[in-house]
Design a protein that fits this description.
Elements lengths: L4 E12 L2 E10 L2 E6 L5 E6 L4 E4 L1 E3 L18 H10 L2 E9 L6 H15 L3 E7 L8 H10 L4 E5 L8 H14 L2 E5 L3 H13 L7 H5 L2 H18 L3 E3 L5 H12 L4 E5 L1 H5 L24 H13 L4 E2 L35 H11 L5 H16 L15 E11 L18 E11 L2 E5 L2 E2 L16
Parallel strand pairs: 1-4, 1-5, 6-7, 7-8, 8-9, 9-10, 10-11, 11-12, 12-13
Antiparallel strand pairs: 1-2, 2-3, 5-14, 14-15, 15-16, 16-17
Helix pairs in contact: 1-2, 3-4, 7-8, 11-12
The structure holds zinc ion.
Length: 463
């Protein structure tokens, strides 16, 4: 009998955000061409009986091979980051092309494009970080990049790449011209700077004071302001990494009055509290990220917001810095909290942590898990061929063993960070086989070495 497909995934339970079915999947030329019982033969076959076949994860917030505001290159290349993502069941990632002062936007984006093209194992896209809107011709450059499929702009209200209110409005207006989504890191810079000074003056330099310096009110203030800016210009905004109950409530109220505001959170806000930072010496620095982890009450508010749809997606905010002189300890072993790089690895643990905390725990059903980890991110950013298993979509799958238990080790991730902030935690459910555009990239703990096979996907957010 002739081979009908390049690849068949046989006998699995196929899960989408809108339903579950027992079916085989036929793949040709990297796309899904059949979903039915007993499809014909494939040139290769993956046995999925007793397994769940889910859309590959879509992680729309990760920092890869990026130079940060303070000049540090983060620890991951496109090779190491996308390898790590694939091991964790993620098949599409959106990282950042970061403009710094005095750089023109288009060459910055082209530089990141070249590096990703060489290294990426899975598909990818970029957010454009705008930190100097007066360099070059903002509107023209944004429109040119939008025509090439770069249609997401990230701005900061804090750090040294922050924009003031006037510039934020300029960038939002340019985004409207390009049909871009605006993503914001929303924390009030003045509050953080003030609280940081007060802490340092009192001798409070340990990592745990990072959490008090990044006051929850700094998030509430900036979230409220960015929502109003979005309303003022009728420009859709995605609020990154909401961490507080106050942030959730502001987003909920805005959405109830019809604002075009969306919000994400991350596993470390759902599963950790600021107590993680309270460890001897600089050990707590491993857990430092911005905004910081908060309280159990905030976790409850975030879970509820996910259940109600006030928060639509959960991303990793993978921000890799090694716990040594190249990363977290670049300013020495006695550095005060404000001189330690912020961020944690998360690309590889995001999906397993959430499968465990959502599905295995019984908190949400499988469809909801797919919705917040794959379908919603794909839909919000207009990744039309991603986030669902349907005819014509890219054949990106994660095939899960829902019963497999894994306990995270100290240094078991496949990124280049060297530590796992979730060490010691046991999760139930694991993505054992991962398929990207019809290619099996992870199988039985072994990864493909076809670095550079990943392709850039165009963003078409619904604006
Ligand atoms: Zn981030």
């Amino acid at each position: 009998m002739a081979l009908e497909f390049d690849l068949v995934v046989r006998g699995g339970t196929v899960v989408n955000a809108d339903g579950i079915a027992e079916a085989d999947i036929g793949v040709s030329d990297g796309r899904v061409v059949a979903i039915a019982r007993n499809v014909g033969k494939g040139a290769s076959e993956v046995e999925a009986r007793g397994r769940l076949v889910l859309p590959g994860g879509v992680d729309t917030h990760c920092h890869i091979e990026q130079i940060s505001g303070n000049g540090l290159l983060n620890a991951d290349t496109f090779e190491t980051a996308t390898r790590s993502a694939a091991f964790g069941g993620t098949t599409t990632c959106v990282s950042f092309a970061a403009q710094h002062k005095g750089q023109e936007l288009i060459p910055v984006v082209e530089d990141y494009e070249r590096r990703a093209q060489r290294g990426a194992l899975i598909d990818y896209a970029f957010h454009i970080i705008v930190s100097d809107p007066e360099c070059g011709s903002l509107e023209e450059d944004v429109v040119t990049l939008a025509e090439r499929g770069h249609r997401s702009i990230k701005i900061f209200t804090t750090y040294n790449i922050r924009l003031d209110d006037t510039k934020i409005l300029q960038v939002m207006a340019a985004a409207r011209k390009g049909g871009d989504l605006i993503c914001v890191h929303a924390e009030n810079h003045a509050i953080i700077a003030y609280a940081t000074e007060r802490n340092l003056a009192a001798g409070n330099t340990a990592p745990k004071f990072h959490a008090t310096a990044h006051s929850r009110l700094a998030e509430a203030e900036a979230v409220a302001r960015m929502i109003r800016f979005s309303e003022f210009l009728d420009q859709p905004v995605l609020l990154f990494h909401i961490s507080t109950r106050e942030g959730v409530e502001l987003v909920r109220q805005a959405r109830q009055r019809g604002s075009r505001v969306r919000a994400e959170t991350c596993p470390h806000y759902l599963l950790m509290t600021s107590e993680e930072l309270d460890r001897p010496g600089l050990e707590g620095a491993k857990f430092m990220c911005s905004p910081p982890q908060r309280t159990q009450d905030d976790q409850e508010a975030l879970w509820q917001a996910l259940a109600l749809g006030d928060i639509q997606l959960v991303t990793s905010d993978h921000a890799p810095f090694r716990f040594d002189g190249t990363g977290k300890l670049a300013n020495g072993p006695d550095a005060p909290f404000n001189r330690i790089a912020n961020g944690m690895p998360g690309l590889e643990v995001r999906m397993p942590l959430l499968f465990d905390a959502m599905v295995s725990s019984g908190r949400f059903d499988l469809c909801k898990f797919v919705e917040v980890t794959a379908s919603n991110p794909a839909r919000i950013f207009g990744l039309e061929a991603k986030g669902a298993i349907r005819i014509g979509a890219d054949a990106d799958f994660a095939i899960w063993n829902p019963d497999r238990k894994v306990t995270f080790g100290a240094d078991d991730l496949h990124d280049n960070v060297g530590y796992n902030p979730f060490e010691g935690r046991t999760v139930t459910g694991w993505p054992e086989t991962v398929v990207s555009r019809g290619d099996v990239v992870v199988e039985s703990g072994v990864i493909s070495d076809s670095y550079g096979r990943g392709r850039r996907v165009e963003l078409k957010p619904a604006i």
